[in-house]
């Protein structure tokens, strides 16, 4: 399994804009190998910003590569090319992880 995380730091009070964008239906939803997309807001209170993390789980590296090479993905980036970053976004960090182990708690698999 491949897990991509995207951590987006935004101006205070603007996390709803990120939640709205990543929660709506997208061409990614129909891609073969997509397991799920989870959107989380960091509950730790920060004075001047908020943090949203999007976790996208793919069945395999190959499935993720197929998304990256897909017409829908390429078109989405092409449409945004040359556009300024929205003012409310302070930073974006993307990471990729290969899942190596999962250990469930006693009540996890019910």
How do the helices and strands line up, and which of them pair or pack?
Layout (H helix, E strand, L loop, with lengths): L1 E10 L3 H9 L10 E8 L7 E10 L2 H9 L1 H10 L8 E10 L12
Antiparallel strand pairs: 1-3, 1-4, 2-3
CATH class: Alpha Beta
Q: Give the class from helix and strand content and strand pairing.
A: alpha+beta
Strand order of the largest sheet: 2-3-1-4
Tell me the major beta sheet: 4 strands, antiparallel
Chain-averaged pLDDT = 91
Counted up, domains total 1
| Annotation, overall tally of beta strands | 4
What's the Cα radius of gyration?
16 Å
Q: Which percent bin holds the helix content?
A: 25-40%
- What gap, in angstroms, lies between the N and C termini? 22 Å
In CATH terms, what is the architecture? 2-Layer Sandwich
Task: From the 3D structure, determine the CATH topology.
Answer: Alpha-Beta Plaits
Shape: flat
Count, helices:
3
Uncertain runs: none
Q: What order do the helices and strands follow? A: EHEEHHE
Strand content: 25-35%
């Amino acid at each position: 399994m491949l897990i991509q995380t995207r951590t987006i730091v935004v101006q205070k009070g603007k996390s709803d804009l990120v939640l709205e964008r990543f929660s709506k239906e997208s061409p990614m939803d129909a891609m073969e190998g997509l397991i799920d997309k989870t959107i989380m807001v960091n509950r730790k209170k920060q004075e001047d910003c908020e943090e949203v993390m999007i976790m996208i789980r793919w069945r395999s590296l190959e499935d993720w590569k197929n998304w990256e090479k897909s017409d829908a993905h390429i078109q989405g980036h092409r449409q945004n090319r040359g556009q300024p970053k929205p003012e409310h976004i302070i930073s974006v960090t993307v990471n990729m992880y290969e899942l190596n182990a999962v250990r469930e708690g006693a009540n996890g698999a019910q």
